[in-house]
Amino acid sequence: MKKHFACLSLAAFAVLPAIPVAAADSMNSMGGAQTYTLNAQNGSGIKGTVTLTPSGSKTTVTIKVTGAGAGPEPAHIHSGTCAKLDPAPKYPLTSVVNGSSTTTVDQPIATLTAGGLAVNIHKSASDLKDYVSCGDLTKSNMAGSGKM
Known about the structure:
Layout: H1 2-15, H2 18-30, E1 34-40, E2 47-55, E3 58-66, E4 73-81, E5 84-96, E6 100-105, H3 109-112, E7 117-124, E8 127-136
Antiparallel strand pairs: 1-2, 1-8, 2-3, 3-6, 4-5, 4-7, 7-8
């Protein structure tokens, strides 16, 4: 009887390691935070990163830049690329103040990284046509991809 009980106990413990692995695989398939480079535009010297962090069906967008003043500098996600942006914002972001901004966008990270979008920072609310920093949400523009 003891041998039978021991076999059942060992079998139960053998299954336990599979549970965390399955959970980890599920998290990997959902994706983690992704960071992209923001490059200075129009001689502004404002550069940094934008990080997209999945949060269920939403995404937290965090901007960190250097070279900016106290702000606020309006920020948006636009359709297009930094080379050719649609001037109408697709998703508004919290203005950059003292070099940072955090916004929760009501879109999954997969939508924001599917291609054809860029994060853009404007000089000021009264000067939206003067772009000071921009980053394409593409794999080739991911921080650490060699392009800065």
